[in-house]
Structure formats: C-alpha cells, structure tokens
Q: What sequence folds into this?
C-alpha cells in the first residue's frame, strides 16, 4: 500500500520489506489468527461434516431441498424476518429523525433511552415479553380490569409475540444505523430547499428522505440478515408449529443428533445470507453505511 | 446570451434592517444593526470572521429569528415569515446543490416548489437560466460530476430561476482558486447587471468586496463600522479598523499640537511634528489621534543618514525588503515604529536592508483617524 515514487529511469529493484511496508499485514495478524481458528476452521469442519454422513454424499443437502419441512421453515423464517425488518425500520426512522433534529442534551437523553435496552441481554428481553404478554401478564390483566375483554387474549406463542419481541430487540440497532446515516446528510441542503420555496414537509419529501434512503437500504440488509438467525426469541415466544431455521438446526443437532443435517442447514443459511449481502452491495454499495462516498 | 438576459430581468427588492439584534448566550452576534439597501443594488457585508455578517444574512433569509428589531423587504415586515415564503434566492458557501438531482432538476427546484408555471414554461425557464450561466450542455449531469466553478454556476442558476427580487450570497467564491474566483467575480457582476435583482453578498475578502460591490458595509464586532461605496471606504475610512481592514495602512499615534485651515500639526515623538490634511473628520488641538497614510502614497529615497524628520517625511532604516512580483514591500524602522511602504518594481532594486532611507508623502496623503487602540488590534487579528 505504501507507494514509493520511483524515477522512470531507475532500474527495477526488488521491493524492500521494510517494517513500514509490513505494518498493515502485521496489524491484521492477531485478528486473522483468531478468525481462522475460531471461525474459518469450524466452518470448514461443519462443511466437511455436512458432506460425509456415510462416506461422501450430498444426502443432507438433498433432504434440505426436497423436504416439505425445510421449505415451510425457510418460508416462515424469511416471512418473519421481512416483516420484522419493515416494522423495525418504520419505527426506527421517525426516532432517528428526531435524534437528528434534536441537539445537545435532548439528543444525548434520547440516545441513552434507545441504547439501554441494547445493553440488556437478549434472553432477558425475550423473557420480559413472556411476563408482559402472558395470560396473567400485565397487558391481559389491564384489559380485563378495564372490562375491554373477559377472557385473556392469546398474545403469546404465535407470530405476533415473536414479531413484537424481535422488533423491540432490533430497534436500538436499527435506530443507531439510521441515525448515523442521517447525520451525514448536509443540513444546509435542507436550508437550501427551504429558501428556494420548500415548506418543512416538502423539504423532507424532496431532499431529506431521498438522501436518507441509502442508510435505510443498508439498515434493512443488516436487520434482515440478523433476523434470519434469531433463535432465542422465537424459541421462547413462538409457536412450535411455526419455527424458524435456527430453531430447526438446534433441534437437529441437540435432540435428533443429526449433525450432518444441522451442518448442511447451517451452511445453506450462511450461503444465502452472504448472497443477499453480495447482491445488495452490488446495487446499494454498503460502503455508504460506513461513510463511504455515495458516488 | 443577451437575449436570455433580457427575458430574465426582474426588478430588485428594497431591503431594510431596523435595529436588528441577535444574541447567542451572552455574546451578541448582531448588535442593533440598521441598514437600508436600495432596490437593485449590489451590497457586500464585509468583515472578519465573527463580525456578524453571516448572522445578518441568515436573519434576512429567515434561518434565524431576530431577538429584536425588524426586517423589511419592499416595506413588508418578514420577521414572522418562514424562509420558503420570503421569495429569496440564495447561493451557499458550499453550493449545497442537491446531490440526488441532475443539474436541470436542481435549477428547476424553486419552480417546482413555488411557481405556477406549466411544465413547458418551466423547461423553457430552466434552459434560459442554464444559458445565462453557460451550462446548457451539462443539464443531465449530477453535481458530483461538475467542477467547483460549474457547481457554483448551477447554484447561481438555481437561486435566480424563480426571478427572486432579492439574492443572498454567502461567501460563494471561498472554495475556488484565485484565477477562477476573479473570473466568477466578473460573471456574477455581469449576471447581476443582467437580472437586476438586489444582491446581499457576504465576504471576508476585502478585494472581492471592493471590486464587486456598489455599496460595502464593513462589519466589526456585531456592529456596522462603516457604510460607503468602495472608493469612499478605501479613500476616506472613518476609523482605524476600516483603514486597516481594507487594504494596508500606516497608523502612527500622536497628539494634535496645532490646527489651521490647511490641516493639523501632530506631534508623534520628541520634537517630531507631522502634517495631516483636513478631512470630514474634525479634531481639536490637544486630542490624541492616528496619522493614517496608505503605503502606496509614500515614496522612499536612499538617504545618507537616518535623520531629517519633517512635516511630510520620516527617516529610518530598511529592516525588510520583500519581492511580490509587481511591487516591492519595504519595512522602514522610524523613531515611532515600522512603516510599510510599497515601491514599484523598477525602483525596488535600489534598496537594501540596513541602509538609511527617507520616506515622504504629499501633503494630502496623511489624514487623521480617531484613536481607538482596540479597533486596530482587532483589525490585525482579523488579518493574521
């Protein structure tokens, strides 16, 4: 990466391995070693395992793509993840916008309230929904005391409870990503829109919103990919008839001890996720999320 | 081009600021400013950073609300009117073009927002504006595909397309290099003459203000230091701050010893008296004041010794000689301090540092300015 200017007339020399030249590689070493040993190696083993049930065979994969169970599970997973993503984005967008507009102390205060749930463990948060949504939970008790309903509503163990909890868990991250993207929008552009005749809503619609879309796309990807792999929340709050892929993998590995099948499913999930990210990157350039140019 | 200029012509708005004030915390950003801008005039707000010029502009635009005072555009108070209903065009320091719109869509934005033109009329108007700023061939491009100077022109076209009667410009040329800046200055002047709108132009560059403006308002510490035509300000500054901020100046403090019809005799040192001409500013004997002489009004001759201080000359040693291409600048240490003198290139060769010289000037070149020490220091701070 370090470019040393060489006069064109100079004879070509072998590159000297100075400390400066090797610095980037040296800095990468610890992280690379860690990832290789604890991620890439297990991943390779998992892939190997999925292919060697009884000698070399693609049986696990053929089951995966032919069984009605996996088709249903994948459909549930993608549907749940999509709805959760859309809901998280629509709730986080106004919140992130409010953060962008507010200044100083108010902004810090809102940020703290956005982030506190993020610091609470995902299991704790999922369990707390059990307490809220159960037959004897706060919500049902309140509704019954007020006389709105006479028998408890079935709020738990269905897609509704899974989505409510997932969205709540995803909201802080979504908000922070959108907020980061919105902060990079030049506010004088809004001033320019206003002085040239746009009212507040028009300035938002014609300038701020279109400029915030790259951030929305990026957040959508991250949240969607994250949702695909949710395990604890659907396991605790969902219906056993509508499981998501991570739960199925867990059942294969822990209860059925079919490690080949679990490995194959895990590997396919990884490939799908990577594919989505790659396609996304092609069209929406993920660089923009980290502050790259929007060119 | 002249044809399109004729069709885009409008009449300028009259702008009046009435006792305008804006305070941030305990610091006044704009302090009791009153100003009349006649219709169609190009007026510059000139001052060092923090002098209140940008705040004044943002108050006129409506991005800020004044704490007190009023803003009248064509005799209508706009203090309560939001920016988008003030019918103003504005060019921002960073151009602030909409990055997700093409050049044509950027220029057409004000038309989509506030005019009732049909699509064909709007398209025609956009084409006229792009012709005026000579960018017709780039209408399909996006701002990031343009050079700084081109973006600047798009910003001008967008600001003028809805024929606003008032155009605000906030240091629009700050990001351009010198050659392009001078070219754009001429273009902006030309466009101003073609469209006839009133322009309020903010700059900290004194030469830009002098070359472009009909009227210059010098601002200093949230107040107006002086208002005048460029010549009035340069040739008859009313304070040491204005004298020093616009161009270069020599300011020598002294005490007025005698007054007569031709001027003042000012004692600037032990037994050294200098003559100062009469001006609109009146002083009386015994008062302390600055003697003010422009460096280009002085002449220098080599002398045999550093002696011979008189009513229109001072003797000293050259302490510094610097070459600037067209001129030499000399620093001459006289008994009362350092004098800056501008010498034509062909004469510059005659001087060397450490040699005695005699600096002299014509009787009318030296005038008096009120002594206000902190004014001068503020001026020096602004330029450093």
A:
């Amino acid at each position: 990466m370090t470019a040393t200017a060489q006069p064109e007339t100079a004879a070509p020399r072998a590159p000297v391995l100075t400390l400066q030249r090797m610095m980037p590689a040296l800095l990468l070493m610890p992280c690379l070693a860690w990832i290789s040993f604890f991620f890439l190696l297990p991943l390779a083993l998992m892939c190997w395992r999925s292919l060697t049930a009884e000698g070399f065979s693609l049986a696990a994969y053929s089951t995966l793509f032919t069984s009605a169970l996996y088709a249903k599970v994948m459909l549930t997973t993608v549907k749940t993840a999509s709805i959760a993503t859309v809901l998280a984005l629509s709730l986080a967008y106004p919140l992130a916008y409010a953060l962008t507009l507010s200044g100083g102390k108010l902004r810090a205060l809102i940020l703290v309230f956005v982030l506190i749930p993020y610091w609470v463990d995902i299991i704790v948060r999922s369990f707390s929904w059990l307490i809220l949504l159960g037959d004897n939970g706060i919500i049902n008790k309140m509704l019954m005391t007020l006389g709105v309903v006479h028998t408890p509503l079935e709020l738990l163990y269905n897609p509704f409870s899974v989505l409510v909890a997932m969205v709540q868990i995803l909201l802080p991250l979504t908000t922070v990503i959108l907020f980061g993207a919105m902060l990079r929008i030049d506010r004088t552009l809004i001033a320019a829109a206003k002085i040239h005749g746009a009212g507040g809503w028009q300035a938002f619609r014609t300038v701020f919103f279109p400029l915030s879309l790259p951030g929305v796309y990026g957040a959508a990807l991250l949240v969607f990919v994250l949702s695909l792999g949710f395990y604890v929340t659907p396991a605790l709050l969902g219906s056993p008839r509508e499981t998501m892929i991570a739960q199925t993998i867990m059942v294969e590995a822990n209860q059925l001890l079919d490690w080949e099948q679990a490995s194959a499913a895990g590997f396919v999930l990884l490939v799908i996720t990577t594919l989505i990210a790659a396609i996304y990157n092609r069209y929406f350039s993920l660089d923009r999320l980290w502050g790259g140019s929007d060119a | 081009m002249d044809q399109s200029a004729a069709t885009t012509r409008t009449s300028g708005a009259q702008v009046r600021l009435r006792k305008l004030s804006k305070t941030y915390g305990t610091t006044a950003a704009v302090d009791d400013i009153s100003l009349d801008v006649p219709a169609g005039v190009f007026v510059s707000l000139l001052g060092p950073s923090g002098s209140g010029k940008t705040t004044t502009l943002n108050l006129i635009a409506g991005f800020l609300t004044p704490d007190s005072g009023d803003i009248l555009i064509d005799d209508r108070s706009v203090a309560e009117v939001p920016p988008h209903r003030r019918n103003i065009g504005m060019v921002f320091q960073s151009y602030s073009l909409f990055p997700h719109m093409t050049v044509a869509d950027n220029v057409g934005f004000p038309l989509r927002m506030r005019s009732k033109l049909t699509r064909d009329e709007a398209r025609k108007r956009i084409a006229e504006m792009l012709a005026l700023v000579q960018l017709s061939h780039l209408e399909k491009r996006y701002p990031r595909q343009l050079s700084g100077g081109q973006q600047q022109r798009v910003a001008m076209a967008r600001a003028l397309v809805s024929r606003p009667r008032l155009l605000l410009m906030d240091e629009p040329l700050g990001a351009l290099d010198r050659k392009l800046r001078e070219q754009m200055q001429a273009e902006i002047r030309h466009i101003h003459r073609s469209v006839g709108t009133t322009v309020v132009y903010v700059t900290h560059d004194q030469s830009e203000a002098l070359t472009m403006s009909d009227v210059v308002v010098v601002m200093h510490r949230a107040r107006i230091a002086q208002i005048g035509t460029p010549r009035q300000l340069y040739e008859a500054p009313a304070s040491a701050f204005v004298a020093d901020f616009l161009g270069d100046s020599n300011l020598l403090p002294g005490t007025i010893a005698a007054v007569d019809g031709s001027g003042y005799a000012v004692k600037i040192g032990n037994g050294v008296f200098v003559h100062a001409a009469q001006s609109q500013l009146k002083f009386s004997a015994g008062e302390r004041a600055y003697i003010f002489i422009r460096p280009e009004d002085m002449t220098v001759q080599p002398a045999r010794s550093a002696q011979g201080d008189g009513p229109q000359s001072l003797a000293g040693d050259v302490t510094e000689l610097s070459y600037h291409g067209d001129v030499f600048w000399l620093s001459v240490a006289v008994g009362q301090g350092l004098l800056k003198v501008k010498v034509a290139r062909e004469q510059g060769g005659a001087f060397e540092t450490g040699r005695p010289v005699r600096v002299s000037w014509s009787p009318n070149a030296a005038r008096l300015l009120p002594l206000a020490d902190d004014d001068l220091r503020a001026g020096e701070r602004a330029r450093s």
Residues 49-290 of chain A form a domain with the MetI-like fold fold (CATH 1.10.3720.10). Chain A has one domain: 49-290.
